[in-house]
Design brief:
Two copies of one chain form a homodimer. Chain A contains 23 helices and seven strands. Chain A is an alpha/beta fold. Chain A starts with a helix and ends with a strand. The interface between A and B is large, with 170 and 171 residues.
């Protein structure tokens, strides 16, 4: 199985900062050589006028003119023949820049180099709380959700909880085993997106991804809202601050995660273990008391039946109980965040987690049955259990506090999974490429920020009342489960390695059970809100495909090998093909425009100056000044009687290109750079407007010659 | 007097589109020649590769690649040796562009050439309604404002209205005569800003301008709100739409004014004359009835005195009545909008206006006295007068309707004055230069839009209840009056031409009376809101001076003659001084980067390629690809272990410049141009970010080589 796993790993499946720089394919590489063969430089310029290695010296220059950019302690000599850009050597130049840098450092910590990727790994004992808070926290509401449906058929139906819990335990074990099988098969991160995409095709993968993305966002919003609600129930004075508090929690989670994987892990170790301990004590004390009375169940309070006990009701109860499984996905997605051997540690951690989940879930359902508890509107089952177990002492308060805390931290699992999912999607071109970028703490900052923003928007939009979003959960998650496990079935079917029948069977059971839950949840909860997911998943898939199509078109257009079907309009890809005409628009003669003219002339290419005049008289005046200067360059004046400047200039350039389509026009504009931003309002920013107008024109290169003004 | 007027006109005082292109001074011109003498082009490039005159041909090329820019019917042969950019030849290329162009045309009309400046002049009969609606509309509330103060001392005090009206008539005549004297002295537009600035110094001019700017904005907000209020009083169902209605009126006024001077005039002729006729009929019928009873005054209803009849009360009544004079400034500011001979027509129009104002004001006060009317809370005096005069028939309704309409149109006067004032201020560098630009309908579009936006914001901020702003009016206006007339006193004193004593006396009387009203208004209404003006005027003056200082610094830095005290960092102003190093940042090798490399190489200057790698391994891979290409250019790789790209690159360039400060670095970046804006989200826009980062660096020129992608 291990060898099999390593084989299956696609070569580029590792999470690496180099993913932003894809390697060239063989065809492209060959084309590159052919293009190089035809490369003719028109003149052979002499040596460079400056040593580009900067003398590999150690006394680093510290340029301080870059305003908000922190100066970088660059240019330390590496063993190789290249420069290395070190950390920030000093504070940025501007006051705002310094403040931002300081706040950033305090919140996020110092930057980490790419080579510390390996260091930022999690021990199993750290990974367990980081990745399991979502999964384990759901036992706080899973049993309750199931019993709340059963009790609709009267208190007698509560007895069905035990067989259903057994069935759910089977489901948990089946899904758990399935993921255990997936991890070594995909040791570089084996989310549903990759497994379903690899084995069932792109659309299946994207559907799984869409389901997971919805799930991640909902996890954050709902968990944070529920956690804050738990706090505000205890401290009602805070109720009116619930939404700001929720946003604050999201910001804290974001900051913790921007600090990097390990730092985030440390933040979350204690509360998760506290919750585990508290719940274990509840179970131990509860079962000890039950043992003392010979495991005789207390009869539950009589509740009248609201509906008949039909199959649909049982299925609804089953699918409601299944929300306890949300979060099981986290480990297989985060395999590369483990210490080596990654897949082995991940698999072990997953095993622990499933074992704990089954124990806690089954233990809780059993204890609730033994104590004869039924769902009540005013108190959660866990709270009732706490009161029964700890009639006195601080036990009850501790249980409630740790429950509230772990609900808040459950959101953190999404902060682990979401950016990784987007990284893998972006690598395939299904998500914006910026999700490939690792921030200076080796976290996928863009993905983290995106999740925090969307979740905060959902939280604020629902005014903190996100309970109604809980039904949406199960659909997205079980869509991903079903697709992932069906994918594993296809995987084993195709490979037929040792023991494939057993493995296929395990995954097939998991897929069938998950699929059943998916259909039940989608149908039974359609009107409760599941329709949103049913609608959103195909729309998201469509969006991802659109994004992919755009990147594919772009890649085709920019590819080096065989000419693309629609070649770019600019054909010049060899120096000898470029025919220059330099155009300098001049509005008035001053130092700035003379600098642009000098720069243009110094390039040694044919040069033309253009002046746009609003009136004939002004044109004459300008030509007169031009002669006073010495008439060093050909000047063309255009009278623009409607006083527009940008339009006529752009159309004149277009006409020049039309007259001679193989020309490359270089438009050289002086750009007066003002030190203070507020003074920009006083200028027409003609340079920027011209640049925007000329963007659409092929073969027109725009060059800004900066002229810095002291104030 | 006429000759005197022409002499006094500063040469550049005309409103001309060429004001955006100031002429060079003698010192600059001489310096230009000296610089030209040292101009050495390093190589003499041959002829231009394309005919820049485009063959002066008549078959115009119609480039259609400019998206939103409408293609321009350019290049018709002019008699002179330059091109002329004609009107739009066709619809813009993109759908959005076409829609905007069509809406614009429908709202604003076809563009007007600069040479039609002379055509866009007003006949006197058109100028009268355009410029007088503000002035004349104020008689609708001026008498009422005065009597409302007097009645505080009981109905007996109402008898003081007649002497006060006489005094105000004297004031009106004095100010009117003063402005009549100003118009020929400043035939190119003689607003308080220019007159006060010319004769009393810059600060006085700016204070007058600040007062007028506040007045113009308030005029629009208050008149529109009052007009809408009159409408909603008649049709209470519209009350809840008052604010949107007001904004709509402002938009209509803006559109009308963007259409240009003459078109706006036509829009306003009818209502103003209708108001004049309605008011004249009221006076004629009223006095006829009074004559029938032998001019015996009806005793006013008994009103108990609320305060004693002191000097302050009389002064307050006087200054309240003086609001009838707001708007008198309009004519002298708009002299150039008249047909030639401009100043003569303007003066005649002003004469008519003052005559009408005095007649209407005095007539109304007299008739109110004869009919024994006193201010009432539930009805305006004009409305009472209408009911007395027209007990039956549609006369009353017509009077009220025309009153409401002229109040709405009074706002239009501000749309005439405000952009002109800002034009003059911008020409002197006291306001942003964009206010110099005439739109394609020869209107100062930027000024019009600025006024509309600020007035709409004030209207919305006060929820349409702008009555409380009325006290602010008088202070700003009379500040401008006082400064303008004091300026004229200084003017005559300095010149001492024929009849200067008489003229000085006339202006001195006007200045003294205006000053008295100013002080009275500022003191008596200080707590009512005048403190805002007292505070805002110095702040605005400070702002204008700041703006002027910025432009002056800039002009010094860019001036051609003697080296500025703080010279720009980039010293290269002659081609032979420029030492090139071309730097091409390359992230990956594809068509886009090869095009940038080819372009860079074709310039024939020393060239260096730079690659920023996140890891050592990626750097090795890239160097390998570079060799596969043929290693045509020197490549420098920089490992950025913190994965930042822009920062290290910017600091590398800064270090190169630091190592060799006389270098001009040209950074050449490929810019992938996407057809659709929405796809930009999918790209990191490194080109823009690099450009922003490099802005602050002196001697770094950024060149974007566009690569157009079909989709």
């Amino acid at each position: 199985m291990e060898a099999d796993g390593d084989d299956a790993a696609p070569p580029g499946a590792a999470v690496t900062p180099s993913a932003e720089f894809p390697t060239l394919g063989d065809a492209d590489r060959a084309a590159l050589g052919r293009i190089g063969d035809h490369w003719r430089a028109p003149r052979h310029p002499g040596d460079l006028p400056v040593d580009p290695t900067l003398g590999r010296r150690d006394n680093q220059p510290r340029p301080t003119q870059l305003g908000r950019l922190a100066p970088i302690d660059m240019f330390t000599v590496a063993e190789a023949d290249e420069l290395v850009a070190g950390g920030a050597a000093a504070q940025p130049d501007s006051r705002a820049g310094r403040a931002v840098a300081r706040a950033r450092r305090a919140l996020v910590g110092p930057p980490l180099t790419s080579s510390s990727v390996a260091d930022e790994r999690m021990r199993k004992l750290v990974a367990l709380p980081v990745l399991s808070s979502d999964l384990l926290s759901s036992v706080a509401y899973g049993p309750e959700a199931m019993l709340a449906v059963l009790v609709l058929a009267g208190s007698a139906a509560l007895g069905l909880a035990l067989p259903l819990a057994a069935l759910l335990a089977v489901l948990m074990v089946a899904v758990g085993v399935s993921y255990r099988q997936t991890i070594p098969a995909y040791p570089h991160g084996a989310g549903s997106y990759i497994v379903a995409g690899d084995n069932l095709g792109r659309t299946a993968g994207l559907a799984a991804a869409a389901g997971l993305i919805l799930d991640y966002v909902l996890t954050v919003s709902v968990s944070v809202a529920a956690g804050v609600h738990a706090v505000t129930s205890a401290l009602p004075a805070l109720t009116r601050w619930a939404v700001p508090l929720g946003v604050l929690v999201i910001v804290v989670l974001l900051a913790g995660n921007l600090r990097g994987v390990r730092a985030a892990g440390n933040l979350f170790v204690l509360p998760t273990y506290a919750f585990l301990v508290a719940l274990s004590v509840v179970l131990a004390v509860g079962y000890a008391k039950a043992a003392a009375r010979g495991f005789a169940p207390v009869p539950p309070p009589a509740v009248p039946a609201a509906e008949g006990l039909g199959l649909l009701l049982v299925l609804r109860a089953f699918s409601s109980g299944a929300v306890s499984m949300t979060g099981i996905e986290a480990v297989s997605n985060a395999v590369p965040a483990f210490r080596p051997t990654e897949w082995r540690n991940a698999r072990t951690t997953l095993g622990w987690m499933v074992a704990m989940l089954v124990t806690l879930f089954a233990g809780l359902v059993g204890l609730i049955h033994l104590d004869g508890l039924a769902p009540r509107a005013d108190q959660t089952l866990l709270s009732q259990l706490g009161r029964v177990t700890f009639p006195t002492g601080p036990g009850y308060a501790i249980l409630q506090a740790t429950t509230a805390l772990i609900l808040l931290l459950a959101a953190n699992t999404a902060f682990n999974g979401f950016p990784r999912l987007l990284f893998f999607m972006a690598r395939d071109g299904h998500a914006p490429r910026r999700f490939l970028h690792m921030g200076d703490r080796l976290a996928f900052s863009n993905g983290l920020v995106a999740l925090a923003v969307v979740a905060a928007v959902v939280l604020v939009a629902f005014g903190g009342h996100t309970e109604s979003l809980i039904p949406l959960y199960a659909v997205g998650v079980f869509l991903a489960f079903t697709l992932s496990q069906s994918g594993m079935v296809a995987h084993w079917w195709r490979r037929r390695g040792g023991g494939w029948r057993r493995r296929l069977a395990v995954n097939a059971v998991g897929a069938t059970l998950s699929g059943l839950v998916l259909v039940t949840a989608a149908v039974a909860k359609f009107t409760e809100g599941a329709w949103v997911v049913v609608l959103a998943v195909p729309l998201l898939v469509l969006l991802f495909r659109r994004i992919h199509r755009h990147y594919a078109t772009l890649a085709r257009a920019l590819a080096l090998h065989p000419p693309p079907p629609a070649p770019p309009v600019e054909g010049e890809e060899l120096p000898q093909q470029v025919r220059h005409l330099v155009v300098v628009p001049v509005a008035r003669l001053n130092r700035a425009s003379l600098r642009a003219l000098a720069y243009a002339t110094s390039l040694g290419q044919p040069t033309l100056a253009v002046h746009i005049a609003p009136e004939e008289a002004e044109a004459d005046r300008f030509r007169d000044q031009w002669r006073a200067w010495g008439d060093h360059l050909r000047l063309e004046t255009i009278v623009s009687p409607y006083r527009a400047v940008i339009g006529p200039l752009a159309h004149y350039l277009a006409a020049l290109r039309a007259a001679s389509p193989d020309l490359t026009l270089t438009v050289i504009v002086p750009e007066v750079v003002l030190r203070r931003r507020r003074y920009r309002l006083l200028h027409s920013r003609a340079e920027q407007r011209l640049r925007a107008a000329l963007r659409a024109l092929p073969g027109v290169v725009v060059t800004s010659v900066p002229v810095h003004v002291p104030r």
